[in-house]
Amino acid sequence: MKKLAAIALSAFGAAAFVVSLSAQAKPLTVALSDAAGKSVGTATISGTKTGVSIALNLKGLPAGAHAIHIHQAAKCEAPAFTTAGGHFNPDAKKHGLENPDGHHAGDMKNFTVAANGTAKAKVTDDSVTLKDGPNSIFTGGGTALVIHAAADDMKSDPAGNAGARIACGVIVK
Known about the structure:
The protein has one helix at about 1-25, and strands spanning about 30-35, 40-45, 50-60, 65, 70, 110-115, 120-125, 145-150, 165-170. By secondary structure, the protein is of the alpha+beta class. The strands form 2 sheets. The chain has a 7-stranded antiparallel sheet with strand order 5-8-9-1-2-3-7, with no helix packed on it.
């Protein structure tokens, strides 16, 4: 009987854990626009065990490799999107995923836009979260997702020589 009760409690605990994970991972869709205010698509952000996953569905962008970063302010004023501020960096690290001293929480791998201007890609960021706390993408009223004109070199401070900000979307609850 004790064994049966332990199995039942164990199963209940596992079920509660699954419910808890799915409750925290409610996807959030961010609309991205270019400097002219034209839609370039969406980014769907989902919580993971270790951070966030961002599914990109983009159009109307220049072909090639592009940097994508989470920036510190929930503002995307065209044409240069400088109101988004610098990269989201609650731990005061240096830029670049290859930086031996650590990287900005908002730094992510590059993605590629096809010759026809579209991209369906997934990027991840294990340094940010959808949960409350200093590394939440909702900290301070939210953040912004910014696409740059060029690829990030993954090491140069402050932004990886990624070039101009060509698209932006506000991340808020």
